[in-house]
Amino acid sequence: MIINKIEKDIKIPVVKSKFNYPWGEMEVNDSVFIAAEEGESLFKLKRIVGPSASYYGNVTGKKFKTMMMREENGIRTWRIE
After folding, report:
1. How far apart are CA 46 and CA 30, in angstroms?
2. What is the pLDDT of residues 26-73, one digit of tens each?
3. Are 36 and 45 spatial neighbours (Cβ–Cβ below 8 Å)?
4. Contacts by 76-81 with C-beta closer than 8 Å and gap 24+?
5. pTM of the complete model
6. Distance CA 24, CA 41 (A)
């Protein structure tokens, strides 16, 4: 194992996704609804959207909450901090 020297101020690269979520545009208490497509599982959709918001939050210091909205057949994500 080779451990290099500690480096400071190395920026985290922006991760490109095939989906364009509005995480960067959201303010505290904003939410976005993402509707499931015909035949798409809400569990699968939540497993895609939730980690995306969480990762963005970890990189930027913001916090998000994602919940399934069964009655509306989609996922809603709130920015909570």
Report:
1. 18
2. 999 999 999 999 999 999 999 999 999 999 999 899 999 999 999 999
3. yes
4. 76/31, 76/32, 76/33, 76/34, 77/21, 77/31, 77/32, 77/34, 77/49, 77/50, 77/53, 78/29, 78/30, 78/31, 79/23, 79/26, 79/27, 79/28, 79/29, 79/30, 79/31, 80/28, 80/29, 81/28
5. 0.75
6. 26
53 touches 21 (CB < 8 A)? yes
- Looking up tokens 């998000």 gives 64
DSSP conformation letters of 27-63:
-TT-EEEEEPPTT--HHHHHHHHHHHHHHHHHHHT--
Q: What angle (nearest 5°) sits at the alpha carbon of residue 17, between those of residues 51 and 46?
A: 30
Point out which residues pair with 69 in neighbouring strands: 74
At 11, list the tokens. 């920026």
Tokens representing 61? 């210091």
